[in-house]
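Tokens help. Consider this.
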Amino acid sequence: MAGEGGGRRRAFIGSFTAAGGPGVVTAAVARGGGALTVLSSADGMLDPSYLALSPDGSTLYAVSETAEGAVAAYRVKEETVELTGAPVRVGGSGPTHLSVFDGHVLTANYGSGSVSAVPVRADGRLAHAPSDVLRHTGSGPHERRQRGPHAHQVQPDPTGRWAVGVDLGTDSVRVYALADGKLTVHREIALRPGSGPRHLAFHPDGRHAYVVNELTPTVTACRWDAASGSLKPLAETPVLPHAPAGDAYPSGVVADPDGRFVWTATRGEDVLSVFAVEAEGERLELVATVPCGGHWPRALALSAGFLYVANERSGDVTWFAVDPDTGLPEHTGAVPVAAASCVVFG
């Protein structure tokens, strides 16, 4: 990894400080085995629930998932991270996700249903205010959860030309352009009403994407056209082999770098679902579900053949060795992190 961490691999874990989390955790990744060892924590910001690394790995960005809504930059050190300045208000409430895109940090603000763009300086620090805040409009049929827009994720497409945002409240995916610090909606794609899309993962071929739906436990396979900046929903597949007995809220989704498998996590049922990629990426087939090793799996990450799960309510990060032939995860370890919310690797 670049920056002051040298060649050693690191994992960075977000958590909810309001629920007892330690803030941003830095962990060492064992060579070969994938095991995590906690090195330190930094608690300079409230509820750093989601994290993203700069392209060179020297700076870590975190949202503050609070009503005020903020983002902060941390300098990556050998065994810890350090704030480079005060958190920057994003002009939206409840940011749940962020990414680095075209010289800016973009945040998806769930509470206010908006996306913010905060300029990044040459040294990785953040500007003092967003260059733009783009507010979504619309709603969905779910009486409680879809009264208005709820942006849940925003990330670059594989070409880096577009940013793609997922909105749970409006049952849609928006494609954005960014020019001179200003965001515009290039296209809005409707998904099935009431599905409640939460997160999206791109297939490594750059021509397909998979949207996990929170309000109905399904995942939607889509075709992505980078030339036109367009997403076409193709097929929706349940993430569970049966009707859920109680709560079942899908959360994370990741795609195999080899393009053969997709994995999702479902809170309440507390399982990981394994999908085989079929029809040249245009359809998913549910292969199996396995326990996530904890309670309320909020996010997934894939690194060096291991699948990592941030289990919010059981307060741990579990990891699984993935069988390269079947895609099945085998539980191999866990580390306690109170109110864990996401894991990223550098």
Q: What stands out?
A: The chain has a mean pLDDT of 96. The CA atoms of residues 45 and 159 lie 32 Å apart.
